[in-house]
Amino acid sequence: MASETRGATDVLSRARTWLGTFDGSLIGLCVASVAVAFVAGLLQVSFGAYSMTILEAWQAVFDPKVLFSVQAWQSFFFGTELPELPKRTLIVWNIRMPRVIVAVLAGMCLAVSGAIFQAVTRNELASPFILGVSSGAGLTVLLTLVLFSSLAPFLPLFAAIGGSIAFLLVYMIAWKGGTSPVRLVLAGVIVNMVFTSLQRGLFFFADDLGVVQSALAWITGSLTGVGWEEFRIAVIPTLAATLLALAGARQLNLLLLGEETANSLGMSVERVRFMLSAVAILAASTAISVAGIIGFFGLVVPHIVRLIVGSDYRRLLIGCVFVGPALMVVADVGARLALNPAQVPVGVVTGVVGGPYFLYLMRRQEQMGEI
Amino acid sequence: MSQDNSNSDGIATANDTAAGPQSGRRDRPLVGDDVVLSYSGTDEPVIDGESITAEPGAVTALVGPNGSGKSTLLKGLANQLEPEAGSVLLDGQDIQTMGTKAIARKLGLLSQESTSPNSISVEDLVYHGRYPHRGFFDSVTEEDEAAVERAIDLAGCGHLREREVGSLSGGQKQLAWIAMVLAQDTDVLLLDEPTTFLDLHHQLEVMEIIETLRDESDITIVVVLHDIEQAARLADRMVALKDGEIQARGRPEDVVTEQLLAEVFEIEAEVSATAQGPRVNPIRARHDGDEHAAGDDSAEPDRAEEIVAE
């Protein structure tokens, strides 16, 4: 009798664990993220300097003149001429909608990037921001904007180069027969400090105030004024980085078992780390090239997802792909509408919210650092 | 991927191959030839030119006091530490010339301290053992599943498979890790102090797993053990190290002698032969200049025991 009931509860608990840890929480998270992104996106397209009602906004969003117009989609994706559109539709589709979509891409990139960096360094505190990638990419972006403005279409490439250089510097500084979480963070602080100073220095070479202001927006991380062009810049690298990250999920999982174990299981640890870091840098640079340096995002989002779905990177990355965009769209709604009519850069919002979260993590965990 | 399938099936084809261990390279599954090992940042090599041959299909135990270099030697054999000189031969092939995955298909290593995320399930952990058998985009095959089942079964952690590793006791964790290495399905298995820090129950359980592997398969096992009595009971051959030098090797009853315990472990002990191999009754720790201390052997047996069991 006793063994029978135990068998039954065993099956039950197995089913529950399977549902609970494998599908339930992740699906719930994804559905919730989509819903949040949708609502926030709707708010974003409905409100603004040109006011319209929610119903009008809806009508504009589902305007068949756009949805079924090849010419319109061509214009969005390839930058060709836009067809004639009613004013509301034009505002929604040409000004507000691309901002939401770019926020989605940037959020995805930063979340995925942070998640990868956290596994590669086996450090919960790792993020593109802390590891210097953001400031390095930011520096090259600024250099391009201020000194070589004709090269603007290659921004993601330059951002990636700058990000890579900074990351390598951080790694070199932190390396001492291996790295430790604390040394990585300290090295990141050093490199960030130098690169941020260089960024500030660049301001003095700017010709006019407009450039300074847009440069400032870059450094703080802003989605103000992004349009379909930014979407076109970011969409392919975002998809590539995300797919590569998902493909590498098993490698990331193995890295979490530590260098020695990964090694003894036949992984070329240094090579895998290097390639996955490249993916993370690509993702971070993509976000930075269209939205500037949005702080704390890449650190915080993987944490939130990890708390909900656990540390399995297949689940974690899928979670990041959904939660990142949702939170970025929400943060941008806050940035654009909270102090209406004034707009603040979205990086201010993520910093203000992310900072205290970081503090909370620090207080909560005794052993900070290792995943 | 499929090269040497006939040889790398370890557990599965145990019984057919056990019949003819003399066939070809099987003779010398793992050989360290005059290896010199040192850690970066230190001048003196830890192991300065030692040779060791793992007995095919048997259990070889490395014993020695703290800092004697037994774990270092194991790391060298496992290709975790590149030898400065000499070579390690796996199935007759220089391990340095082999790809990391090819090595991992033939040689498994259980490190002394393994870390994992707390929320990973035991089953997922064991599946990581299949890493060297899978390509980058390969999904789980039936062969993987079978190997994982076998490993979990062998390690006796079937009841833990859905549990999170973070929620397990030290002993249960060790069983999970052993299952992971077994899932790797290798001909050679290296274990670095698999029983240290475990309670007696789990120590015995780990020893039973190793015994099962020896009796029912032809896996070649090299194990570092702290407890010399345990090593004597478990091993077919023992290798005793001190200060990075191999002091003695051979069958347990030949290696575990009062003289060796005095020289290598610096303890005074009585050794008595039993059916389960030599029994060690530690009496006291020897200090430099203690040449004729046999007289007061009743002194502080507890302390000596602590040192041995440490």
From TrEMBL, chain A:
Annotated compartments: Cell membrane
Gene3D superfamilies (UniProt xref): ABC transporter involved in vitamin B12 uptake, BtuC
Membrane topology: Multi-pass membrane protein
Superkingdom field: Archaea
GO molecular function: transmembrane transporter activity
Pfam families listed in its UniProt record: FecCD
Alphabetical UniProt keywords: Cell membrane, Membrane, Transmembrane, Transmembrane helix, Transport
Main location: membrane
InterPro entries linked to this entry: ABC_BtuC-like, ABC_transptr_permease_BtuC
GO-annotated cellular components: plasma membrane
Residue intervals passing through the bilayer: 26-50, 100-117, 129-148, 154-172, 184-205, 274-304, 316-338, 344-362
Record function comment: Required for corrinoid utilization. Probably part of the ABC transporter complex BtuCDF involved in cobalamin (vitamin B12) import. Probably involved in the translocation of the substrate across the membrane.
Family from the record: Belongs to the binding-protein-dependent transport system permease family. FecCD subfamily.
Subunit structure: The complex is composed of two ATP-binding proteins (BtuD), two transmembrane proteins (BtuC) and a solute-binding protein (BtuF).
Protein name in UniProt: Cobalamin import system permease protein BtuC
Lineage: Archaea, Methanobacteriati, Methanobacteriota, Stenosarchaea group, Halobacteria
UniProtKB/TrEMBL annotation, chain B:
Localization annotation: Cell membrane
Pfam families assigned to the protein according to its UniProt record, in alphabetical order: ABC_tran
Region: Disordered, residue numbers: 1-31, 273-310
Role: Required for corrinoid utilization. Probably part of the ABC transporter complex BtuCDF involved in cobalamin (vitamin B12) import. Probably responsible for energy coupling to the transport system.
Gene Ontology terms for molecular function: ABC-type vitamin B12 transporter activity; ATP binding; ATP hydrolysis activity
Record keywords, A-Z: ATP-binding, Cell membrane, Ion transport, Iron, Membrane, Nucleotide-binding, Transport
Domain of life according to the entry: Archaea
Any one GO cellular component localisation term in the record: plasma membrane
Residue stretches making up the ABC transporter domain: 30-268
Organism of provenance: Haloarcula amylolytica JCM 13557
Segments crossing the lipid bilayer: none
Xref: CDD domains: ABC_Iron-Siderophores_B12_Hemin (cd03214)
Protein name per the record: Cobalamin import ATP-binding protein BtuD
InterPro entries: AAA+_ATPase, ABC_transporter-like_ATP-bd, ABC_transporter-like_CS, P-loop_NTPase, Siderophore_ABC-ATPase
Any GO BP: monoatomic ion transport
Residue ranges with Basic and acidic residues bias: 285-310
Catalytic activity: an R-cob(III)alamin(out) + ATP + H2O = an R-cob(III)alamin(in) + ADP + phosphate + H(+)
Quaternary structure (record): The complex is composed of two ATP-binding proteins (BtuD), two transmembrane proteins (BtuC) and a solute-binding protein (BtuF).
EC numbers, comma separated: 7.6.2.8
Topology within the bilayer: Peripheral membrane protein
Coiled-coil parts of chain: none
Ranges annotated as biased composition (Polar residues): 1-16
